[in-house]
Amino acid sequence: MPDSGRKANTVTLTIDGQEVTVPKGTSLLHAAETLGTEVPHYCYHPGLTAPAQCRICLVEVEGAPKLQPSCVTMAQDGQVVHTESPAAKRMRQGVLEFYLVNHPLDCPICDMSGECKLQDYVFDEGREKGRGREPKRVFGRDDFGGDVLYYGDRCVMCTRCVRFMDEVARDSRLTVVDRGSRAVIDTFFDRGLEGASFAGNVVDICPVGALVSKDFLHKARAWDLDHTQSVCPNCSQGCNIELHTRDNLVQRLRPRENQEVNGHWMCDYGRANYEWMNRPGRLEEPAAGRGAKRRAVDWKRVLEHLFVQLREGSGAEVKVVGSASASNEALAGLAAVGGAAGDVSSRVFRSRRAADEVPLPGFPSLVRRRDLAPNVDGAGLLGFERTGDDGGGGGLEDLAGHDGVLVVLGDELADQGEDFGAGASLYVYLGTFDSPAARNADFVLPVTTFAEEEGSFVNAQGRVQRYWQGMQAPGSARPAWLVLGALAAVLGGDGTPASAEDVFAGLVAAHPAFAGLTYDALGDQGAALQKEAAHG
Amino acid sequence: MSEARFQNPGWAGNTGEFDLTEADVRGSDFAGEPPLDGGHPSVAPSLPFMLVKKDPDAPLFEGPYLERFEKIRGRYPTARAALLPALNLAQELRGHVSPETMDEVAGLLGLSDAFVRGVATFYTMYNKRPVGRFLIQVCTNISCNLCGADKVLAAFLEHTGTELGQTSSDGNFTVAEAECLAACGFPTCVQINSRYFEDVSVDDVPAVLERLKREVNDGF
């Protein structure tokens, strides 16, 4: 036994009567987590250092003279730990009572209500009634600038926000001002958080309702929100996020942990850019006919007509405009349809590029990238070339007057005039919004945004990541992979794909860069391209 | 010199056995201004100066103060560690630590302005607002309180004509409460600038204030 113990890089201990084996250097808090026991904690956050100052994660360790903070006490061989012993529970109840001495208990008007750790812990193990009879001190609220609002009365002084700005953003703008019951979180007087690029994260990590988002203020209750796993569509970093929706509208974006991509964080730029997903006035019905002759037609007939025209025109020169915001599945379908319709002479996409990258110093793999679209790398792998300027305009000079087949997916052609595609023998426009430049389209097909469909993006690290459907599409808009997959199936003689997963499987077969990947392998954390290709 | 003697309030170490004034024991500079170079390091922190010239607009730092600042910076491995003495120095020069002072000290030490604010506001011995020529801190902690500190405090407020924490109209006095001044054997203890007055009773208050006013008139 001693031999195996010396070699092993693990320790075995007992927590609440259950034996558990964890790697050396694991904290008691994490060891308990592997057993499904959540030890209450405020100041500890997995992405930050642990100061062990909130005193609520104290657990009983047999042999130790006092309760030990489980967030910084490392698991040892043979330790016997009780997280639910009378001593631990009594202590937690006492600590919680102190937390409530000056807490306003304004849960009914607090944004955090429903996802608040103070609410949860007090409900679970707090005293039924407070014994304090003294008046509570009142701070009111403080505008930190940016998107952040501070309610000092609700604060539990865990200093997660201060440590985030110190350690991760490396921009020490927050501090604890004053002491004792007068202590508040604040910036340097009137110098707020304006201009900070990652400050929105302090709202996420605040365990109570002290730091709230102005954008989200009083907008929705936490328990009314549906959470959908997704990928941030606002730059090519592809931060893992959750879409929080209510009434089929995105209410906010929240980062989702992925240590390979974004850790626990996301940038303020990505977080703030979600209103376009809720933009009204969408294309809802498929239509056929140019200009004044345009008529709404149902999907079945529009696809039949389109199929006939594509087959008639086969052999023509085909030019395809894709989009770096479209999924791999849609772009692969677009390439397949283009190829089946004739000789593809150009496959392009346009996307906006920022002047600079915005790195997060404390988590170097997270960078707000220059490319402000999620699938620039996927489009490249699938044979699309970037064209146009950094504003996402221009670059379509030889397409505007093209006389062969023209297929546009997901590009609103905002800078193009009404004569765009006037000379095309066949012009198909798949988009989410109508556009003056779609006036000459023979077919206008409504497709979904990324929030309304399933699919995958390739981020700037060469990582393929899935996203899921969080909203209902308006009218009869359909995912582009389904529309293009159905067309490609008819043209190529295969069956219509039943799911995005089918399309992805086809894509993997056709494109060696994606070799070895499946939706199952991607999971909710994604998988890197090259590594998988090498193994596969 | 003899008329400047005080039986009560006395000074620390005066047991009444010897007919010596404080000036006889400490030298005549005991109530003077702190030396620009900060004094000999071995006693510098405990020198009980009464008179401090405060210039809220004094530059940070110049001449002998710059020398002292650089010495302070050189004594510590990190800029953070040098923050407390640097703020002390700024307060000695300017009388209080204003937001501008915090910002300047942060710039000098290469720390974030918010961090310096956090530190300066944590410690009560940094005055965040301007104070009078004499900052009168009356201990109201337990020993002094039992021996009538509340009345002494009230007497100081009455005779200076100020409210707690405010500065008298002539700019001379600011009266504040202090927690334990570690002179529990001599209640009530009052700290005026950096000097202790011990065994202060309500009746002593006018004499103390008279002495302070005289020192102001004597060329301060």
Structural class determined from secondary elements of chain A: alpha+beta
Radius of gyration of chain B: 18 Å
Structural class of chain B: alpha+beta
The CA-CA distance between the termini of chain A, in Å, is: 40 Å
* H-E order of chain B: HHHHHEHHEEEH
Average pLDDT reading of chain B: 85
Task: Report the major sheet of chain B.
Answer: 4 strands, mixed
Q: Strand count, sense and closure of the main sheet of chain A?
A: 8 strands, mixed
Shape of chain B: globular
Number of helices of chain B: 8
What is the number of strand segments of chain B? 4
- Which residues of chain B form runs of ≥5 with pLDDT under 50? 1-9
Largest beta sheet of chain B: what is the strand line-up? 2-1-3-4
Distance N to C terminus of chain B: 18 Å
Interface with most residues: A-B, 14 and 13 residues
- Strand percentage of chain B lies at 5-15%
Describe this structure in words.
The complex is a heterodimer of chains A (536) and B (220). Chain A has 536 residues and is an alpha+beta fold. Chain A is 24% helix and 21% strand. In chain A, strand 24 and strand 25 (463-467) form a beta hairpin. Chain A is elongated, with a radius of gyration of 28 Å. Chain A starts with a helix and ends with a helix. Mean pLDDT of chain A is 93; it is low at 532-536. In chain B, helix 2 (63-75) packs antiparallel against helix 3, helix 3 (83-94) crosses helix 4 (99-109) and helix 4 packs across helix 5 (113-122). The A-B interface holds A 171-179, 186-189, 191 and B 99, 102-103, 111-118, 121-122.
